Amino acid sequence: MSDATLDDRGRLTLPKEIRERYGDRYHVVDVRDGIRLIPVADDPLDELRDEFADVEKTAEELRDETREAALDKAGR
């Protein structure tokens, strides 16, 4: 963990180690007790493809399973 300070124009400079690890783009999210910086991938679609590369079901199959599970949980 490290500290960062805003400059007189409101800019925040992140430490080099953080930029090298997570990149240069972030979503700033206002949470109850502060803020969070969420790294944004250079190509978010590539990140999603990588994340779900091992999923063998189609989107329709996943959607149907999710719908069935929600109906079961709701007590049909």
TrEMBL record:
<dbReference type="InterPro" id="IPR007159">
    <property type="entry name" value="SpoVT-AbrB_dom"/>
</dbReference>
<keyword id="KW-0238">DNA-binding</keyword>
<feature type="domain" description="SpoVT-AbrB">
    <location>
        <begin position="4"/>
        <end position="45"/>
    </location>
</feature>
<protein>
    <submittedName>
        <fullName>AbrB/MazE/SpoVT family DNA-binding domain-containing protein</fullName>
    </submittedName>
</protein>
<dbReference type="InterPro" id="IPR037914">
    <property type="entry name" value="SpoVT-AbrB_sf"/>
</dbReference>
<dbReference type="GO" id="GO:0003677">
    <property type="term" value="F:DNA binding"/>
</dbReference>
